[in-house]
Amino acid sequence: MGKSTLAIMSAVVGSIAVLASADGHISDKQIAAAIKARQSQMQLHAFNLGLLGAMAKQETPYDAAAASGAADNLAALASLSQAGYWLPGSDSDSVEGTRALPAIWASDSKIGEKGKDFVDAALAMQSAAGKDLGALQAAMGPVGKSCGGCHESYRKPKG
Hints:
This protein has helices at 3-13, 28-56, 64-79, 111-128, 133-154. Mean pLDDT is 88; it is low at 1-22. The longest helix has 29 residues, at 28-56. It has a single domain, classed as Cytochrome c/b562 (Four Helix Bundle (Hemerythrin (Met), subunit A)). It is mostly helical and 159 residues long.
């Protein structure tokens, strides 16, 4: 495994860190900012995946440069540390405006493994997207599976 992959995995696995004030208290303002940050990152994921998915489904013409750009963005997003996004008390049972289930913070949580799956899929997409339509299409399944693997277990359904 390369150094960059290890660094990314460390960032993902370490993403459930606590960033609190000196007295250990996490303020409502910190929680709101964390939720907004993680939702913003998810929007960027969705935007780039939307471009890639439209090409993969042939709803828009395949464009190697655009596919590479979106895949590069996805890989860059996957490499960002999310340490400040996942504060205890920022789950759907504790505050409104989030679908993050408390299971994320449970001692038996597999969130790190799910995050690694996404990183691996994003890096594979980065390698495949600009090659040709077939390579892009083949890379979409693992990306979608990695997204679903986390969302099915750790995101409250809409409604």
